[in-house]
Amino acid sequence: MGTKKKPKDTSLEMRTTESDLGLKLCEDCLSCNREILAQILKENLLCESSVPSEEWKLLAKNIEDSSQASIKQLEYYEKLTKATVVQNEQTLMKYSDVVRGGVNLLSSDVKMMKELIQATSTKMDVINEREKRKNNIILYNMFKKENIKESVNKLLKEISGTDLGTEVVEISRLGRKSDEEKSRPVLVQFSNYTVKNLILNNCTKLKKSLNFNKVIINHDLSREDKISNSKILEERKKEIGEKDDVSRWQTEGRARRFLCYCFQEAKFTKVKNSSCNNSNNLSVIMTNVDSITNKFFDLKIFLQSLDVAPDLIALSEVNPKNFNQCRVLSEFCLDDYSIISSGFAEQHRRGLMLFCKRSLLLTEINLNSSFKEYIIVKLCVSNRVLNILFVYRSPNSNVGNNDLLLKLINDVLALPGETLLFGDFNFPDINWDTSSFEGNDERVENRFLDLLKDKFLIQHINHLTRFRDGQTSNILDLVTVITQFWNSR
Fold this sequence. Notes:
Blueprint: H1 27-133, E1 136-140, H2 148-160, E2 168-173, E3 186-190, H3 193-201, E4 216-219, H4 223-241, E5 260-264, E6 267-271, E7 284-288, H5 292-305, E8 312-316, E9 337-342, E10 352-357, E11 362-365, E12 374-381, E13 384-392, H6 399-413, E14 418-424, H7 444-454, E15 457-459, E16 477-482
Parallel strand pairs: 7-8, 13-14
Antiparallel strand pairs: 1-3, 1-4, 2-3, 5-6, 8-10, 9-10, 11-12, 12-13, 14-16, 15-16
Helix pairs in contact: 6-7
């Protein structure tokens, strides 16, 4: 029996190739469809090759565009960075200049403050030295061989007329001992200022003394005061030496800004205010001090030179022009005087001070005037009432302030009693010889003159009161009273 031949299993022989697109075909199918498959494969290859090319171009373009944008952005940031750096450098330079200027200013202020402190310290040393010496006197030509304390006590008793032993704190010789015949000066320290003034006011008695007629009495001056006085004396000698021979002249005493001096052969005479002890007389000293701080010591020295202390002391412009420190009124006290002030130690005010003897029956009057620089007091003298108006008018006073001044004067004249009007009015262009002013009738000068005439007031100052280098001398300080009240002395 013949064996039956099995059919060929073609599925086992099916195969795939990469070129057949992954189709599982038999040999027969492959051979029959090879061209179709080749065409499909070709188209597939073309399709595959074309798609990536477009994408790569697009990608390349995007990359290039991104690169260009990045480059532009980087360039922008670079410019911005450079501009910021330049701006920061300029700001830093400005800041450095400001800081440098601030440091320089601070350094200048510190230096100025240091100089101010040094000047203040020096001034305080001078003031302390003056305070230390204010109760002292120096005696020259005292006997050398006798007991010095006994001799001084005899001299003081001869001058004062009483024993001052309890008022003397110290008596001592100055300088080193020497074998020379010339005696050393003697320092005498008193317990108070009053005793010292008593001795100085009566020292002329020594001229008639048998034992002490050659003794010279002087203040115990500090080194600064000696230098200052020497300069003033030399300047005065030079000034008078141009007109007269001063080679044989001698000088005694000391110079002060508040005092006037004249030379005489063999002595230096101090010209003082005439005054008297008559209770019916009122003595007044008035001056523009242009800052009391620098003139107070000179004022005290001037008062010591007077035979009789004045009843009133009127000072104008007591505040400094450059107001840089606070002062208190108690710094400027005078013995036996009370103080009335206006605008003292106030900004933008020149200020007035009126020293009044405590023995006077005197009261302050306030009229509530808007004119600021004035003091009014009512004084009872021998059953008479005297209203005293002390005024300072600035040279820069405006029309409104001038009107207030004239109104104030009228208000004071309306008060019961007599009126004494004085002060620094700053009317340099008024001719007081003729009591006239060349100007418009509305000017304050003419209105002031009309007021004086209408109220029968007489202005009594007829000599120049203000002298400054490079400026014309003028009559700026005025004294105005009703005629019968004025005593020309």
